Amino acid sequence: MFTPEMVSPELGEFVLVANHSLESTEAARLSVEYNRARILNGRPHLPSESWKCRLVYDVRGQSVSEPTIDQVRTQLCDVATVEFKR
């Protein structure tokens, strides 16, 4: 079952939240792989007008470098708009 945090047909988007560790290169890589698969596999189960994904990473309490944040955004930019909650 695929359940986003929110679906907004008016905005044409669905929202996912990721509470993943991004403090190591390996953790960031695994998170990107997981979220890419989550988005691509979940999209067909949503209304057709909700095709854009907004992915919010909750990294409060973590020491995440700007290069890591940039890398995650770059690697997911083709499937989602990525935001970071600090």
TrEMBL record:
Protein name: Uncharacterized protein
